[in-house]
Automatic annotation (TrEMBL):
Keywords: Coiled coil, Kinase, Membrane, Transferase, Transmembrane, Transmembrane helix, Two-component regulatory system. The keyword Transport does not apply. It comes from Nonomuraea salmonea. This is Sensor histidine kinase. The keyword Transcription regulation does not apply. Signal peptide: none annotated. Residues 172-199 form a coiled coil. Residues 205-272 form the Signal transduction histidine kinase subgroup 3 dimerisation and phosphoacceptor domain. The chain crosses the membrane at residues 23-41, 53-73, 80-99, 119-139, 151-169. GO terms for molecular function: kinase activity. Residues 312-400 form the Histidine kinase/HSP90-like ATPase domain.
Amino acid sequence: MAGGTLTAPVDPGRDDWHRTVPGWHLAFAVFALLTAGLIIIGDAGPPTVERPAALVILALLCGWYAVTGARALHRTHGRLGVVYLCGALPLSAALWAAAPSGPLMSFMLYPHIWALLPLRRAIPVTVASVTSMAAVMIVRSDAYGQEPASVLLMAAVALLTALVLGVWITRIIEQSRQRARLVEELAAARTELAEVSREAGVLAERERLAREIHDTLAQGFTSVLLLIEAAKAGTCERDQAARGHLDQARRTAMDNLAEARALVAALPPPQLRDSSLPDALRGLIERFAAETALDAAFTVTGTPRRLTPNEEVVLLRVTQEALANVRKHASGAARVEGMLTYEDTDVTLSIGDDGHGFDHRAPGAGYGIGGMRERVTEIGGTLTVGPNRPSGTLVQVELPS
């Protein structure tokens, strides 16, 4: 389900109605220009003295639409739409009273009512608007030249047309919202399905590795422990050095067996399960000093804080690998120093020795450095391996946090 199967995120707000809003803006501008042209031409229009008033009212209506209505159409059923209609309705009625061509703007007013108000409010507002317009036509019968009966008939037709148009607009908006919700739910379901699929793959791989580790490493470490116990039992009590080496080998095998079991169970490393990161690193270095008889020190500067489990595991693994490199490559080393520094924006781990150093880029240097670098890079950090001062090798990790 990853990659090409998932579609790009869909914005639920860009539904069918919102995509038609630019067309409504264009329609409003066309009707406004047409109304202004009819007012100016004056064919069957008001007396000359009323034309400026009609143009002023039309300009106010256009300005009010630009300030409030145009933005309100992008937020259907919002407070801004109510504000727009509170100004647009009286301005439209005044335009009807000032110019017989004013009713043209009602072709835009009624869709706005239904787009900006819920159904239970749009119906009474539409009825009130049509009624007020009919009253204007009756009062201004001198300008419109219509009998009251004709006006009432036209009002009934206009009301029916407005209601039908309003129901159509309402259905478009509601259907588009339902589709937007369905698209959003579908995207969420696909994301969830992809996560479930990924977790299933991880679980299957973990089970495979668990079987492999159980059948190989875990059994191998158990056999090593048994052999060490047998060798220790057969060692003379006076041979304390040999018994000490066997004890160290036994502890190492037991620790690695615990690591293998933790990997099988997807648990954090044993060193971090009951200890903080500074205590775990200090324990590693102290144990390294006991096993190698090297002088070792570990310091913590700044105020320790919890990192993410993955970050703490990476710093622990880097420390283990750096100490292993000292054991294998740092010939002539007499001291190992570790430092964990907590700063406001990052955490720095340094492991250095005073040996002769080694070329970590040389063939045969092993995969430890590359593995460390990959681990650190995955969590957004940087790893550097270089010469220490005055001699030796310094491994340093800088981790933003």
